[in-house]
Amino acid sequence: xxxxxxxxxxxxxxxxxxxxxxxxxxxxxxxxxxxxxxxxxxxxxxxxxxxxxxxxxxxxxxxxxxxxxxxxxxxxxxxxxxxxxxxxxxxxxxxxxxxxxxxxxxxxxxxxxxxxx
Length: 117
Known about the structure:
Number of strands: 3
Strand content: 5-15%
Radius of gyration: 15 Å
């Protein structure tokens, strides 16, 4: 199943020009085709948001610079933060995983991160 961090990393690769648009779109279609069955709700929401932007681009409602700007905003919006503050989701250790607070995440031109970093 597609994890939201994997989708974010592929978006970052596209936005950093490491991955051509056609390759990103092919990867996205192959990996998100059954997203409604994914238990990762963050991955679902992010995939639906990306799918909408791609459809708008394909139909000519978004130009490439607008597509890149909107996808970059999604990368920033769908970020995770490791904190010691109470949150709704616990990873079972002393740290909690919070999906509601932004964390310093890479954007276009920056390196990828893993959820454990």
